[in-house]
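Researcher: Structure for this, please.
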Amino acid sequence: MNFATNLSNYFLLMEDNIHCSSNFITNIKRALMIWEGRPWVIMEFSKLGFTGKLCHSSDLPHLASFFLYYQSMSPEKLFPSFYKMLAQKNAIQFSPSLFHPIDFPVQEGNFSTKKHFHEIILKPKDEFLEMDFGKPDNPPAFIYTDMQIFKDYLPEKAYSLEEDFFWALDPMEGNHLTVILKEPTKIRRVQIVTGSEDDLVFLLKGKVELGYKPNDNANNCERYILLGTLQNGKFDHKMLSEEMENKASCLRLVVTTTQDDWIVIKHIKIWVA
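Model: Predicted structure, token format:
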């Protein structure tokens, strides 16, 4: 680990045969923003051994020496002693997990069992992001956009839980579709789908932001944080536990590249805590 000391500000410990959740880098960046200005030594984004442990790169020489000194002990059991030694009193854990094990059959030549790899090596089995959230809630809200609307395919139709959609013409960089919740709400999950299954009429590039402190005069919020970016016209984000501490008032989809074509926004779905 010493070689990485001067390569970056932070170092993420990972193991083999791990599947990463979508937008895991964005989630980690957001956790760092939440903890900005507060001291920490180790952040944990998974319960799986080494995997998902984040530390300051400047601490790597100390961590490597600590592991070497106590090499008879399992390294993952040493993390609590290490961060307590550097004045972090309690574990800083984020949930749901951003990483989970990839299952594959264990060969009898290597192990005397046919159980899956994670049942032997990666206990406990982790709680991954792909959990059942049930039906979306879509609490009462006002919908605003500065995109050019085609006929009666209004932006409200994207937020409706009915089978309908919003149709916009030639979206330009900076255009937005903003959901203003009537009451501030703790949000568990956000999902946005643009385009159709048959035609490439999705938003090529866009970002999704969560807003706080509604501004009544501007139909907007005073402060936004980035949740992530669209991938192939789709976005699905499950909130970290610390992101749910404050109630949000706005959800905003922002066009980040001008597009000389029409787009369809099929649905915007919100699950509340």
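Researcher: Any notable elements?
Model: Residues 104-131 have pLDDT under 50 and may be disordered. The two ends are 39 Å apart (CA to CA).
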